[in-house]
Amino acid sequence: MKRRVDLSTTTSITTTYEGEYKGQMISAALLSGKTLAEENLTIKPNINFKEVIQKIASDDIVKDASCDFNPQSTLTLTERVLQVEEFQVNLQLCKKDFVSSYLGADMLPSAMGRQLPNSFGDFLMAHVADKVSQRIETTIWNGTNATSGQFDGFKTTLLADGDVNDVAGTTSTTANVIDEIQKIFAAIPSAVFGEEDLLMYLPSNMYRNYLSALGGFGSNGLGAAGTDNKGPQWYGGGPLSFSGVKIAHAPGLANDTAVAAQKSNLFFGCSLLSDTSEAKLIDMTDIDGSNNVRVILRYAAGIQHGIGSDVVLYS
Asked: Mean of the pLDDT values across residues 135-153?
């Protein structure tokens, strides 16, 4: 006789439920996929496996004029490959586990026709989608393909590219953050300086320290009054810049790691964009007669940069 193996997702329910549910479902604070939500990368959807990114370089194409057609210039075409990797979320819940909790009040009393309440199903799927957004955000910047559920992020690919402009960093504080950002600013290649889509991507700790420094808690002669003499109350959530270069908050970057690049030089590829945000809840009762509910989500994603010599990596 074969023994049944329980493959359900471990479900831990702690409750003091005694009647009508009067509370509210609250998920822990999650990263919001800020980099993609604000479109701070070039997003390339509808990639099944690979897409080639062409790079074009040339010498000085302007020559002295002559009466004849004289093709003297040199064009060099190279390429990078943006490859996406497939990922999945698979959860299985037993509806019976929820009967004695507050959710049981919203479930049919029938053991055969029992369903999870719509409110919990909606919450669960939103929670899964948010967790995937968090994972994608961190993997875009700090991922390694050797880790399950991740692809190589920009820190990995930029460190491996000898053409990238590397800047040695240190632990960020409110006292030194402006000097550290200045190092990144000074290393931006002249070829891209002043371009409209040039961004400095800062991790949360440097972004937060920069806000504090501008509010009067830094050095460099800002003074206690801070920006516009408003002290720590100066910032209202608007865009930030440093000497004219726009700053993007990239929560997925590891502390004290930053990137300066054109948005058009950093690529995020994926399958259908909706794949990364649509979780499906499948009630298995009518399918296999079990008392289980499954949650699934599948997507493919990956990143690539174009011209390494146009990128600054601070780490």
From this structure: 95
